[in-house]
UniProtKB/TrEMBL annotation:
Keywords carried by this UniProt record: Transferase
Range covered out of full length: 97 to 359 of 360
Transferase found in the keyword field: yes
Domain of life: Bacteria
Statement: the UniProt record of this protein carries the keyword Transferase: yes
Name of this chain's protein: Bifunctional 3-deoxy-7-phosphoheptulonate synthase/chorismate mutase
Coiled-coil region list: none
Organism expressing this protein natively: Paenibacillus farraposensis
Length: 263
């Protein structure tokens, strides 16, 4: 179903007033984790001012260590909804457990399935039973074929509103957090009609190369970019090193916009 052979026209997904996968490319930004109303609101206000339509924020965090901050759970989703409604932004948050989906879709506009859960087939099937758009991340070491099959798990259950997002893969390279696989963008666009985004933050883990990587992704045909933004990254409860503060985000966004690649 996800193959372009089966559907030559690109899928366009409408989220609130924003179209994903159409002629325009979009920016998705927000904190790694929703930590408080105040923190999320500060980012939401900056997105509104910049004209960024989609706010991301993790509420159920799949942390490497069980002793690290695990997220605010449903309260985090409620904060996202409050801020989204306040500024007219669509919202995205990761769901890690099929049992949370029904409640979650009351609060968020897009369900994120994270890299660690790309192979969680019961979660994929459950997301496929909803009628809420899904942002599916590429697994930590998933091939293109595995990635597209994961998307197929969702759409085969009737939820055709799936967006793919390249977020870097594991390689031997240590100077970036993951290796951004730019070639994934034109391959996925060719093989599938689904929208393709690139998460420049998790793929690189480096604030100093976000703008050139975002431009490269857009030049390669990406339908959107995701970036992490926090009002005070130094005290962030997750991914403190890689999040942009608000002035850094504004600079990043205008740099990408001025390139003319963000349409
Ligand atoms: C995230 O986007 O917050 C996240 C945890 O990313 P990934 O699943 O790509 O590691
Ligand atoms: Mn993060």
């Amino acid at each position: 179903i996800v193959s372009r052979k089966n559907q030559p026209d690109s899928t366009v997904i409408k989220v609130k007033d924003t179209l994903v996968g159409g002629k325009a490319s979009i920016m998705v930004a927000g904190p790694c984790s929703v930590e408080s109303y105040q923190q999320t609101r500060e980012v939401g206000a900056a997105l509104k001012e910049a004209g960024v339509p989609i706010l991301r924020g993790g509420a159920f965090k799949p942390r490497t260590s069980p002793y690290d901050f695990q997220g605010l759970g449903v309260e985090g989703l409620q904060i996202l909804k409050r801020v989204g409604d306040e500024f007219g932004l669509a919202t995205i948050s990761e769901i890690v457990d099929p049992r949370h989906l029904e409640e979650a879709v009351q609060y968020i506009d897009i369900i994120q399935i994270g890299a660690r859960n790309m192979h969680n087939f019961e979660l994929l099937k459950a997301a496929g039973e909803t009628r809420t758009p899904v942002l599916l991340k590429r697994g930590l070491s998933a091939t293109m074929e595995e990635f597209l099959h994961a998307a197929e798990y969702i759409v085969s259950r009737g939820n055709t509103q799936v967006m793919l997002i390249e977020r870097g893969i594991r390689t031997y390279e240590k100077w970036t957090r993951n290796t951004l696989d730019i070639s994934a963008v034109p391959i996925l666009k060719r093989e599938s009609h689904l929208p393709v985004l690139v998460d420049v933050t998790h793929s690189t883990g480096r604030k100093d190369i976000l703008a050139p990587c975002a431009k490269a992704a857009l030049a390669a045909g990406a339908d959107g970019i995701m970036v992490e933004v926090h009002p005070n990254p130094a005290v962030a409860l997750s991914d403190a090193q890689q999040q942009l503060n608000i002035p850094e985000f504004q600079k990043f966004f205008s740099d990408v916009k001025e390139s003319g690649l963000l349409k």
